[in-house]
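#structure-requests
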Amino acid sequence: MNFNFNNPTNLVFGSGSLNVLGKEISVRRENGSLGEKALLLVSNGKSSKINGAYDRVMEQLGTAGVEVAVFDKIMENPLKSVIMEGAAFAKENSCDFIVALGGGAVLDSSTAISAIATNPGDLWDYVNGGTGKGKPLVNPGLPVVTIATSSGTGSEVNCWGVISNPDTNEKIGFGYPELVPVLAITDPELMKTVPPKYTAYQGFDALFHNTEVMMSNGVNILSETIAISAIESIARYLPRAVKDGNDLEAREHVAYGSTIAGITMQLTSITAQHSMEHAMSAYHHNLPHGAGLIMISKAFAEFFIEKHACDGQFIKMAKVMGIPGADKPEDFITALVKLQKDCGVDNLKMSDYGFKPEESMTLAVNARETMGGLFLANPCDMSDEECAGIFDKSYK
């Protein structure tokens, strides 16, 4: 029954909500919580310009009287070097706050750039885990406004981002409570042009945030309640969103499941499934995060089912994932496999991304060394050998 929830983010959710961005920023400028110049973060692709989101955001910022400097170099699985470059750009342009327009990579990057734009040294000075030095922040970060254009990470409403350091083969979550966004806009209309494949990858990332909270040994009455709600929405509507990106009802429900995950993760830690995928994409940078999670998801869940670590939680999830009469934990696997098939992602292969069977132990050790804290949230112990076994079982 015990939990501690504190999130100062003003979340504006729903179709058309981007239209209030200018008004919301103006209010904050008037009360002095936001300054005159924004660093607008976008990806190195063209999606936000093609779908019109970029122009609409620029228009809204203009109505709020905000000057804008654009940094458009954020890529999938964002690199430490780009974070450092973005922070230097913010300093050079005397930016007072950040507006992050994009998917998970852009939202994650905004947290890290916020911190480094106002603090001395290197990002890895403040990273906890791996080769990070774990220093506390000296100064508050730049205020962050997030505008999500995809449904996956939930980073629009929390203080976490995942950054890759290819020099050390590390992909680590970075965050501090004081970096929580001040304003988040989640407008499902901005997500209609996300391609089917990435709709599926991102949707499963959101799903697993919630399923891992359900499996976590720290789950509580509030985190479970909202995670179950999100799991039900994603399981029901993700296949529709993958099939027809213009299905706004489906986009709304998947976006809800993703944003809710960003909230429930502040109440309960996710598990080692995410540590394991971070190790995968740390060594194989071209692997989309959601795809990696899908590849290991069945074997990961089966490990705990075989241990009878949280049978009741699996049954609860199976019931809202399309098996209302579920009465055994294996029903979760049945529902998961069907959902992956319905979304066309049931045949993803690690070998297609350059993985070799002999990498399993390297990945297992990396997962624990870089983000070992998530292993502590598992519902039962998992050794390095058992972790490597999950990679072995997932390999094809």
